[in-house]
Design goal:
Length: 119
């Protein structure tokens, strides 16, 4: 992902209604939701929703497809994963980006990014 693409995507998500739309679509999964249902769930008028969906689509965060008389919108998970990857590409020298946690005995340790493999 290029820096300009990341900036555009982050700017799109930096608006309350668009972030709500995107989060709803992430929750809906790959099957997505019809535009009317999104508007109902978020109480957005059709013109306002259309504006926000178009903005999210231009940045590659949302896809649309026609199913009969309905336009179905879904989150583009591949592009979101690329955005997250771009943001964490050089994070923490390849270690987990999570802050250290404290165990029950009060000792601090780093969170592991993946489960340990048994030898």
């Amino acid at each position: 992902m290029e820096m300009t693409q990341a900036i555009d995507a982050l700017a799109a998500l930096a608006q309350e209604s668009r972030l709500k739309v995107y989060r709803l679509l992430v929750e809906a999964g790959p099957e997505g939701l019809p535009a009317g249902r999104i508007g109902e769930e978020l109480d957005l008028p059709p013109a306002t929703l259309s504006f926000h969906l178009a903005h999210l689509a231009r940045t590659g965060l949302v896809r649309s497809r026609q199913e009969g008389r309905y336009v179905i919108y879904s989150a583009d998970f591949q592009n979101m994963n690329q955005l997250v990857g771009y943001l964490t590409e050089n994070c923490c020298g390849g270690r987990a980006c999570a802050p250290p946690t404290t165990n029950r005995k009060g000792k601090s340790h780093e969170a592991l990014s993946r489960p340990r493999q048994r030898a």
